[in-house]
């Protein structure tokens, strides 16, 4: 079937099965491979994108559910102020190692700061718990989120 | 700084004999790099070229460094470029990288020497000198281009510096002739040559510089690259930010699965149960109804479906419900546990290493403990993927592999081509931890590509990664110790490991192209590499390491940390138990036995300071562990990496909670401290994952924890507070990639003992259950 989407502000039309996950439509039909396949089961967070501003696992989102909605991917998240700040913090703190999970981490972090501009350490830990990083860049992710939020990188010891 | 040729040569000698030893070996191979338009090849590691678009439209001189390693996140790409750029005196913003082609110019004699037992089992000692002719010949014949065992700096820092030095000499000669001065008096910095107030840019000099020959004996800077820990505290902006950083935050970084070629189709694959299984039947009709199906390809041990998109290919391969049957042993944890237990309790031990003979003392040991370690899964976040295109008898392969030359061989064999007709484009890996030493996917994608006749991208599903990926070996060990009658000293120590010859087995697959099933036949033999790190550094008069080899009949592979991942757990758990039995404080108990090991003592004391070590007393929840790894550099020189870790942990309702990890690390001279810190941070967390999860058994060849969520890998919320400090050392550099993980599990186990009074003697620790 023919499905119309808005991806990073651009109208796109794809011809595909309604049950095909958004992940594969992005990666293959729309040639935007920045969003990654990690587990195909919504367990690792590598495929995280925004659907109308909310973080979703694109491997678990049938394309039909994304029809007519605004999709933001790692390729477009920098167009948004918060996304740009997150990316800049990621660079400043030299977060990525292998990088494979980082698109998903950045998308999750941006969604967090959108709805919670000054997250507590517990907020960050809880929100980011769906994104696995096997290189374990977690310490820097924590610090980068705080930096992007305008908080000191390290939580001060009370 | 005034540099003279003589001064620099002497400096190089002081910096390390390796630096001047290498140039003496003749370079018999042509330089494998090709110059592009406006480019000039300096040597096998470096090209320079003119690129328009610098400041005010001026041309820039860009250095392009050839990287002969697999980047898996460890930062080697940046490190390699940095060494060349610093030696050349180049502006870091004008340095680019490209993957080196397969060539003997990039052969790694240090790895050849380290792996001599694998390619020359009968006379391994003859090949074990990295500066010896045998190791070099072996490396070049392959050529051995494998990213493993942390040999990169040891093998390549010298030639990389020489490449930078050659460019510096060429630029300096061009400038010096213009100025009428001696070129040795010129300095280079930020891509300028200077002499007093005179200054010319590399870009301005490039045209004339390429006509100068660098000196036959490279003139290196007096000091090798070094970032002192004190100068770069945590959080300081890196002097050399990772080159891959910008592309790694905006989704533009390309992995093997992101390659897009015209007319490309996508493949999904099904393997049989882990072990020796062959495809017996499948329902081809069931795939026919899947929209977009292009074809079905079957082989002896796998079935693949190809479609216009991966999702359809995956649907098709699952719809066919492939069945497999055993043609040899199938992985099964119950059998493995029985085999390990039988080997440890009834098997014939072989003594691998000994100082003195502890047997008499251990007839009645003061303490005996048994430790068990489960198979460890690599679980990189990127599943195996590769892209292949066959045109006019030439196979192109886009693949992330630690062994590009072995991948090339595997692909050539599968496609019925000569090795010369296969081109490998090395891609960066989305994590590996040694999973990408497995080159089977190269053969698979080549075979599929040949049958389908179109460019094909093969991606393993997560389940396939768990099912077909080969884990680190399980191992069981018994440690016996004898204390002096006054319990002040350890007099005797024996570590007996029931472990298959995993290094020989995985080596045969990697180096000799053996199949998984055939390689199992090598398991039942003595294998010192499988027991590396088991001999304690502690001054114990009588100590020995023994192996009970066994046929595990389940495939095993290399894994981040290698044998140290379990031997450090055995040693550092057991020494802690001895300390407790002796009624001694565990840190000072260790230090008391480390006379003549000042570097390790400094690590223990450093970690203690970071953690505000309280003596590991009851209920403190603090535990300590340390370890040393070594790499032979050749000519009898050895580089060492040392670490001590203090963990603060507690166990609640069967869940291990690690609150803090403090590590003091001595990796000698540090070339890039931010990357070293990343590696230790990641290594500590990898060690935490190894301590609390990342393992699975098998039932009928199926992993019991095949889903990512079942592996218990740490999430952000599980990440403890971490403190890391580095020793300020000018010893030979040691690769930090594996060192970070090895001492974490025993530190946590010891912390849990302090917290709970219970010894955790099984890895992962939580499977013991509280």
From TrEMBL, chain A:
Pfam families: Fer2, Fer2_2. PROSITE patterns: 2FE2S_FER_1 (PS00197), 2FE2S_FER_2 (PS51085). The keyword Oxidoreductase applies. It comes from the Bacteria. SUPFAM superfamilies: 2Fe-2S ferredoxin-like (SSF54292), CO dehydrogenase ISP C-domain like (SSF47741). Its EC number is 1.3.99.16. InterPro entries: 2Fe-2S-bd, 2Fe-2S-bd_dom_sf, 2Fe-2S_ferredoxin-like_sf, 2Fe-2S_ferredoxin-type, 2Fe2S_fd_BS, Beta-grasp_dom_sf, Diverse_Oxidoreductases. Keywords: 2Fe-2S, Iron, Iron-sulfur, Metal-binding, Oxidoreductase. GO terms for molecular function: 2 iron, 2 sulfur cluster binding; isoquinoline 1-oxidoreductase activity; metal ion binding. The keyword Iron-sulfur applies. Residues 1-77 form the 2Fe-2S ferredoxin-type domain. This is Isoquinoline 1-oxidoreductase alpha subunit. It comes from Novosphingobium taihuense. The lineage of its organism: Bacteria, Pseudomonadati, Pseudomonadota, Alphaproteobacteria, Sphingomonadales.
UniProtKB/TrEMBL annotation, chain B:
Its EC number is 1.3.99.16. It comes from the Bacteria. Residues 250-329 form the Aldehyde oxidase/xanthine dehydrogenase a/b hammerhead domain. One of its GO terms (molecular function) is isoquinoline 1-oxidoreductase activity. Keywords: Membrane, Oxidoreductase, Transmembrane, Transmembrane helix. It holds the Pfam family MoCoBD_1. The chain crosses the membrane at residues 7-25. Residues 222-241 are annotated as: Disordered. This is Isoquinoline 1-oxidoreductase beta subunit.
């Amino acid at each position: 079937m023919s499905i119309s989407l808005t991806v990073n502000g651009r109208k796109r039309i794809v011809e595909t099965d309604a049950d095909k996950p958004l992940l594969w439509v992005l990666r293959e039909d729309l040639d935007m491979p920045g969003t990654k396949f990690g587990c195909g089961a919504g367990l690792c967070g590598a495929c995280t994108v925004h659907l109308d501003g909310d973080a979703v696992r694109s491997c678990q989102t049938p394309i039909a559910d994304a029809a007519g909605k605004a999709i933001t991917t790692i390729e477009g998240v920098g167009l948004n102020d918060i996304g740009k700040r997150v990316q800049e913090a990621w660079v400043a703190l030299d977060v990525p190692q292998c990088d494979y999970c980082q698109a998903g981490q950045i998308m999750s972090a941006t969604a967090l700061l959108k709805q919670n501009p000054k997250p507590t350490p517990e907020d960050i830990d809880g929100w980011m718990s769906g994104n696995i990083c096997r290189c374990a860049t977690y310490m820097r992710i924590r610090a980068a989120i705080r930096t992007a939020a305008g908080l000191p990188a390290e939580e001060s010891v009370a | 700084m005034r540099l003279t040729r003589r001064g620099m040569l002497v400096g190089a000698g002081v910096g390390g004999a390796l630096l001047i030893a290498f140039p003496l070996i003749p370079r018999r191979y042509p330089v494998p790099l090709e110059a592009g338009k406006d480019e000039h090849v300096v040597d096998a590691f470096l090209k320079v070229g003119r690129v328009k678009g610098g400041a005010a439209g001026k041309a820039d001189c860009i250095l392009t460094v050839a990287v002969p390693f697999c980047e898996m996140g460890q930062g080697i790409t940046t490190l390699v470029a940095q060494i060349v750029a610093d030696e050349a005196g180049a502006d870091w913003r004008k340095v680019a990288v490209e993957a080196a082609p397969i060539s003997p110019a990039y052969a790694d004699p240090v790895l050849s020497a380290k792996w001599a037992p694998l390619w020359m089992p009968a006379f391994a000692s003859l090949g074990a000198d990295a500066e010896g002719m045998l190791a070099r010949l072996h490396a070049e014949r392959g050529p051995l281009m494998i990213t493993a065992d942390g040999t990169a700096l040891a093998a390549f820092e010298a030639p990389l510096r020489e490449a930078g030095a050659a460019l510096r000499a060429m630029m300096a000669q061009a400038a010096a002739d213009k100025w009428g001065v001696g070129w040795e008096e010129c300095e280079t910095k930020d891509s300028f040559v200077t002499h007093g107030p005179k200054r010319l840019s590399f870009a301005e000099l490039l045209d004339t510089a390429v006509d100068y020959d660098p000196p036959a004996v490279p003139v290196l800077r007096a000091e090798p690259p070094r970032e002192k820990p004190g100068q770069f505290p945590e959080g300081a902006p890196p002097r050399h930010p990772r080159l891959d950083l910008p592309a790694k935050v905006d989704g533009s970084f390309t992995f093997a699965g992101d390659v897009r070629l015209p007319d490309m189709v996508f493949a999904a694959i099904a393997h049989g149960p882990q072990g020796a299984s062959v495809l017996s039947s499948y329902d081809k009709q069931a795939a026919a109804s899947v929209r977009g199906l292009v074809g079905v390809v079957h082989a002896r041990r796998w079935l693949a479906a190809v479609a216009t998109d991966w999702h359809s290919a995956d649907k098709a391969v699952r719809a066919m419900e492939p069945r497999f049957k055993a043609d040899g042993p199938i992985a099964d944890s119950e059998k493995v546990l029985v085999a390990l237990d039988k080997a440890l309790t009834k098997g014939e031990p072989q003594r691998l290493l000994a100082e003195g003979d502890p047997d008499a003392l251990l007839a009645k040991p003061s303490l005996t403990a048994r430790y068990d370690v489960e198979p460890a899964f690599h679980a990189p976040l990127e599943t195996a993927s590769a892209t292949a295109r066959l045109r006019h008898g030439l196979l192109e392969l886009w693949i992330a592999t630690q062994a590009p030359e072995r991948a090339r061989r595997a692909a050539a064999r599968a496609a019925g081509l000569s090795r010369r007709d296969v081109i490998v484009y090395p891609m960066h890996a989305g994590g590996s931890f040694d999973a990408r030493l497995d080159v089977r996917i190269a053969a698979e994608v080549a075979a599929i590509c040949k049958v389908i006749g179109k460019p094909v991208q093969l991606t393993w599903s997560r389940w396939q990664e768990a099912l077909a990926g080969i884990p680190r070996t399980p191992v069981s060990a018994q440690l016996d110790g004898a204390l002096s009658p006054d319990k002040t000293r350890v007099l005797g120590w024996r570590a007996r490991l029931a472990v298959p010859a995993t290094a020989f087995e995985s080596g045969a697959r990697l180096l000799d192209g053996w199949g998984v099933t055939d390689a199992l036949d090598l398991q039942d033999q003595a294998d010192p590499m499988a027991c590396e790190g088991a001999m304690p550094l502690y001054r114990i008069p009588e100590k020995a390491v023994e192996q009970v080899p066994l046929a595990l009949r389940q495939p095993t592979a290399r894994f981040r940390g290698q044998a140290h991942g379990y031997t450090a757990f055995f040693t550092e758990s057991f020494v802690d138990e001895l300390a407790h039995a002796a009624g001694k404080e565990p840190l000072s108990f260790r230090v008391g036995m480390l006379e003549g090991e000042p570097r390790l003592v400094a690590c223990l004391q450093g970690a203690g300071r970071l953690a505000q070590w309280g003596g590991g007393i009851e209920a403190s929840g603090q535990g300590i562990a340390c370890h040393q790894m070594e790499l032979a550099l050749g000519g009898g020189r050895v580089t060492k990496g040392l670490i001590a870790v203090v963990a603060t942990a507690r166990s609640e309702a069967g869940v291990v909670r690690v609150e803090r990890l403090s590590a003091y690390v001595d990796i000698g001279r540090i070339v890039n401290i931010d990357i070293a810190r990343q590696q230790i941070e990641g290594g500590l967390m990898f060690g935490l994952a190894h301590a609390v999860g990342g393992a699975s058994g098998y039932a009928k060849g199926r992993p019991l924890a095949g889903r990512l969520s079942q592996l218990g890998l740490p999430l952000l919320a599980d990440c403890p507070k971490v403190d890391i400090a580095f020793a300020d050392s000018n010893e030979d550099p040691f690769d930090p990639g594996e060192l970070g993980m090895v001492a974490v599990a025993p530190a946590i186990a010891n912390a849990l003992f302090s917290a709970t009074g219970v010894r955790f003697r099984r890895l992962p620790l939580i499977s013991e259950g509280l």
